[in-house]
Amino acid sequence: MASGPTDVELVREVLAGRTDRFEILIRRYQRLVATAALRMGMPREEIDDVTSEVFFKVYRSLHRYEPQHALSTWLYRITVNAALDRRRARRREARQEEIPVSLADGRPFPGETAETAERAALLRAALERIPEHYRTPLVLVHVEGLPLEEAARALELPEGTVKSRLFRGRALLKSIIERHYPGLAPAGAGGDPA
Amino acid sequence: MRLLPRFPRGRAADPGAGWADAVLAPLRRVGAEVDVTGAVMRRVASLAAAPAAEPPRAAWTAAFAFGVTSLAAVVATLAVLWATADEGVRSAARAAAALGRATVGLWERAATVVFALLGATRPLLRAVWEILEAAAPLLHAAGTAAAFCGILAILYSTFVFARARRIGPEAGLHGGTR
Question: What is the CB neighbour count within 10 angstroms for residue A126?
């Protein structure tokens, strides 16, 4: 990791009035937040807004940050909440304007192959069919790679609850893939019950 | 209203962490490049430079002065009443003070009881919720079995009544049986 002020030092400096130091935190974590939001199903045209919103919320509630935990975990928590808020708002709008809420979007990002983009879009569509409280732990653990403990902290849930939601989320995802997206099933993966 | 979503049955048991890692791998390759530094810092700066909502000072000062004056007037009136009044007024004042103390004490006790109850039941509620979540497939299966038994019971009683009508005695026109 590049040398420089730690997250905790930066947070303390910002809280002490050096607001310009917040810029370093944004640069350090904006990719993480944007990518997490995208993987949680946010449409790409909203990623900039969501990321800005997350950092603005972080700035306004920086005094609530607990330095004993990783800043990234806290950022995940705020990103999850921001994504949920956006989704609810969009659902309300969709009900009013009768537009589909689907978030699947097959356009590739720069540096992304068309095939990867297509598979990712199908996966996002498959994940869309899973209830929110099963989908978010799946994304945090199996896509973002968070350990169970951190995912539980990011979701503000007991580890046991996250674990049982993961079991059920994986079962739902498997059944959805088998029924609607058989091409997404990993080749030769019969499942290795954990 | 269904509290717990439908749980897939049969072959769709948990396929395991390895399966999920493999199937979700394409999503891990998806990344988003954004640069929101300028936008966020502008918002932060506007927040810092924003004129703090200017309180309408004149109105606030006048209201405060008016409040203090009113309070002083009430206190003075009560003091005069207390000093010049007869025993009846003093008894009423003492009763009002006792009632106030009792009300405060009651509220304190009620708050203590409520907080104690909340503290004691929270882990219990959480445990019940976790059990419900874990038992969702069982509940689902039990519900399906109960519905199936209900249908069987209806069919059986339909059969019993139909048979009884066929072989049972018929009522005659004048109340007797034939």
Answer: 21
